[in-house]
Every structure is written in C-alpha cells, then in structure tokens.
Amino acid sequence: MIRATLAFLLFTTPAFAADMSVFVRNQRSDGVAVELFSRDSDKVWPGDDKVFLIRPQARKSVPISCEPGEHICWGAWVNGNDSVTAGVGPDSDRPCDTCCFICVEHSTETVDLAE
Predict the structure, then answer these.
(1) Which residue in 16, 31, 93, 110 has the most C-beta neighbors within 10 A?
(2) According to the UniProt entry, where is the signal peptide (predicted)?
(3) Tell me, what CATH number does 68's domain have?
C-alpha cells in the first residue's frame, strides 16, 4: 500500500522548473540584443516581445527558469540591425551547431559574442 501511494505521488507531482543563468559576454563594438528559444516548446526568454540588451564590451548574467533537460538555443543581433546576427538569429530560424545548451538546475551557460 505504501509503495502504491509513493508511486502515485511520484507520477502526479508536477514537474518543477529549474533556475539557471546565462552569462553573455559581448566582445563586439556594437550593442546586441539577445533572446533565448526553447527547442522543446514555444517558450522564449525574456518573452513578451522583449530582449536582453547588452552594451558594447559588456557582460551580463540573465536568470531564466526552464524545464530540466529542455534544449535552449540563443540568438543575437546588432541592436537596431537584425541583419547582423549570431546564433539562431532573431527569429530562431538559422542553423547553429554551437549555440544550444540543455537546461540544468543551478548551472550557468556562457555565451561569447565576438566581432
């Protein structure tokens, strides 16, 4: 009976969100806009038609809440000129082998934006 109750609780407990950070180093001479896109859902960070803005030569740590194991890709572009892009771009429609990571609780992923 106890095992059945524990099994029931295990399968009915809602999934928890993981809190992690993305540390962006903008090594460019231009300010950049950055968005994060889930490959497993329609989630976008920061969301609501907003972006993370990083000044030229600046560093910024942005907290996100994601599902453990979720695949996340980043897209960046020169602020005010979305034809100059990096990662998966502003619409998450560009191929990129090195701009995705997996959501892991209490971890930090680093994104380097070079000239």
Answers:
(1) 31
(2) 1-17
(3) 2.60.40.10
